[in-house]
Write a structure and sequence with these properties.
mainly beta, Immunoglobulin-like, five-stranded antiparallel sheet
Length: about 240
């Protein structure tokens, strides 16, 4: 892999709210303020969208645990075994994986961490890095990463605001969650909408009404408690 390595996604796991790419976790545990994990007795599952099939990606996974003498975890991407990693008690283990392009030809891959020895699967954080060829730049905004029956687009508005336009197949409950680039939940809004083209306007503030810093943010849209769309944008 050549070119500059830049972070595309970076998430600290183990918060009370799962990160926006989580498909399944059983729960979370905090060992101390700086060490938290997602866990499951079986497998942890995450869906990573928004990838360009013509670019190269590296995934970096961080593991930590204090319960077992050692845990053995299998890392699987889109059903393909990537590696097996051993996590001793009290040690931070970082595993980096080059992701084969054939596994994200559709712009998405599923990351699975399976328990192979010990009480459960654990994961403390993960990041996805993109390798850019010389002269390549990232777009300022990506939207409609996943498109189901709802159409979905993101627009920048004056005053540091962001508007999401979407179409619903029927009347139902819509939930929007805004996350920082580190995976922290910034704001969450629920509302009931009719089958129509609707809009959601985020004013760049958190749940306390405070203006958040400029930078990269992610938005997650659920319809009737089912993930429908995710997007990434830059707050200016």
């Amino acid at each position: 892999m050549g070119g500059d390595r830049i972070p595309l996604y970076a998430f600290d796991l183990g918060d009370k709210e799962p990160c926006l790419f989580t498909l399944y976790r059983e729960g979370q545990k905090s060992y101390e303020p700086e060490k938290r994990v997602d866990y499951a007795k079986g497998s942890l599952r995450y869906k990573i969208p928004g990838l360009n099939p013509e670019r190269d990606y590296l995934a970096s996974l961080t593991f930590y645990q204090e319960e077992e003498e050692k845990l053995v975890q299998e890392i699987v991407v889109d059903g393909v075994h990537m590696n097996t990693v051993t996590i001793p008690r009290g040690k931070v283990v970082v595993e980096e994986l080059n992701i084969p392009q054939k596994l994200y030809s559709d712009g998405v891959f599923e990351l699975v961490v399976k328990n192979r020895q010990g009480g459960r699967s654990i994961l403390s954080s993960f990041a996805v890095y993109e390798f850019l060829k010389e002269g390549t730049t990232l777009p300022a905004m990506e939207s409609g990463i996943e498109k189901g029956e709802t159409s979905f687009s993101i627009q920048y508005m004056p005053g540091g605001k962001v508007k999401v336009a979407y179409r619903l197949p029927e009347r139902g409950e819509v939930t929007f969650e805004i996350y920082s680039v580190t995976g922290r939940l910034v704001n969450k809004v629920k509302k009931v909408e009719d089958r129509a083209v609707n809009t959601f306007l985020w004013d760049g503030r958190n749940e306390k009404g405070e203006r958040v810093p400029k930078g990269i943010y992610f938005i997650r849209m659920e319809f009737n408690n089912k993930l429908m769309n995710t997007g990434k944008f830059i707050l200016f």
